[in-house]
Amino acid sequence: MVRMMLALALCGAALPAAAQQQIDKLLVGTTPSIAQAPLYIAEAKGYLAKEGIEVEEKDFRGAQDAVSAVATGALDVNLGAINAGFFNAAHQGLDLRACASLGIQPLPVTATPLLARKELWDSGAIRTGKDLKGRKVAVNTPGASPEYFLSLILGKYGMTLADVDETMIGFPQMVIALQNKAIDAAIPAEPFASLAIRQGFAALVRPDAGAGGGEMTTVFFFSGKLTRERPDVAVRFLRAVIRGARETQGDYLHNAEIVAILSKSIKLAPEVISSTYPYQFDPNLDIAKYVESVKRQERQHMKDGRLSYSEPLDLSKVVDATLVHQAANSLK
Questions:
Q1: Which of 48, 104, 121, 286 has the lowest tally of Cβ within 10 angstroms?
Q2: Domain co-membership, 197 together with 250
Q3: What count of other Cβ atoms lies within 10 Å of the Cβ of residue 123?
Q4: Does the N-terminal peptide bond of residue 108 adopt cis geometry, omega within 30 degrees of 0?
Q5: Cα atoms in the Cβ-side hemisphere of radius 13 Å centred on 291
Q6: What residue numbers bound the domain in which 235 lies?
Q7: Are residues 219 and 327 in the same domain?
Q8: Which residue in 103, 113, 106 sits closest to 40, CA to CA?
Q9: Which tens digit of pLDDT belongs to each residue from 249-296?
Q10: Cβ atoms of 291 and 276 closer than 8 Å
């Protein structure tokens, strides 16, 4: 018996490190978008596997739909937009935090631009946001970043959300709705904006296509349960996605390898992916740099009546860069 135990021990010692490494699982909420490129790259290039992380993805129409799941710990992580649901959950003391940055909106055209139905653009019926008055405009969910952009656009022309007919549908469905003439305009995230344009269903409303440029609109939301009970797993996960983010610096949509990864992950043709207006990513996913952006979005959602409170939150309690700073520093 002693000899057998010794033999088993020696066999275990002979295994490569990867074979002995414990695998930790994370349930991660996603919404197909180029804004999630760091995760897709980290998966495809083995960075998550190297950290001993196995991700199970669950799709959501938008981040707001996943807020309750993260707050209860039913979902470990959600990649999604800063949204009214998050602010309301934080105000109620629900157990979640924004822990790392994701997509930063580019300029001069954002990665979530205003589109008009093609025939309305061609006829001159819609040329700027001013022409949206009384029209059916699609955003993905109430209080999410596309609605935030819509509010900025309407505000430029002295209007509010009450001046348009908002329709709530998912980004892929916006392309179909534009084709079927079910909506007049839409604010879809990439790559669906470029897909609608390429297919001839929509046109870019260029005078207002830069609304929200420079804002951080998508983040990693972590459950409090994850950050308290498995902070080491959270840091390893963040190390992997930071490696992914560092591969998106510069003109990453002209990198054939990355385009192929995104094409497979989002299930759209490479030529569609490479023609989009790309999100930008901080190389360290440092959310601390973008607290003012979060404040601006909170103020607008409050103005739009999407928040259940009237005084700004103490963002130090809801935006926590501790883990992402640990992860980035460990890679230097």
A1: 286
A2: no
A3: 11
A4: yes
A5: 13
A6: 23-104+215-331
A7: yes
A8: 103
A9: 999 999 999 999 999 998 889 998 998 899 999 999 999 999 999 999
A10: no
